[in-house]
Design brief:
Blueprint: H1 3-26, H2 30-52, H3 57-64, H4 68-91, H5 97-124
The structure holds fe (ii) ion (FE2) (2 copies).
């Protein structure tokens, strides 16, 4: 896969994830919300694994931008936190629904900030061009 194709795939992945999270946030029916969250639990690791794979996106950030080492450590730590968070959210689906929706909104905000950062770094890497 050419480097530019990798970045294009990441950006497409972000778009798909964001659309899906927005859909979950707008679910009025509890059953639809739960079903979307279970699906999201499957989608997220696929996206994170793609970014983390050897020779992939995060490796290019590590070597392609100033302070890349620290940035990639942070992005990886955020991936790990999202992986844990979505599992905890799924485990608590039966709990208080208002609280659950609050957690999902918080999750969505953090994920949006994370992806925004990746787009910013990704667009700075001259190797893509
Ligand atoms: Fe990421
Ligand atoms: Fe991402």
């Amino acid at each position: 896969m050419r480097p530019q194709d990798t970045f294009d795939a990441i950006v497409r992945g972000h778009r798909a994830l964001r659309k899906f999270v927005q859909k979950a946030l707008s679910d009025i029916e509890t059953e639809a919300l739960h079903s979307d969250l279970r699906e999201l639990r499957g989608m997220l690791p696929v996206h994170f694994d793609f970014e983390e794979r050897a020779g992939g996106f995060l490796e290019r950030i590590r070597t392609g931008i100033p302070a890349g080492e620290a940035e990639v450590d942070l992005l990886r730590a955020e991936h790990d936190a999202f992986r844990v968070d979505i599992e905890e959210i799924i485990a608590d689906l039966g709990g208080d629904q208002a609280e659950l929706r609050g957690r999902i909104r918080d999750f969505a905000t953090r994920l949006r900030d994370h992806e925004q950062k990746e787009r910013t770094w990704g667009s700075q890497i001259t190797l893509w061009r």
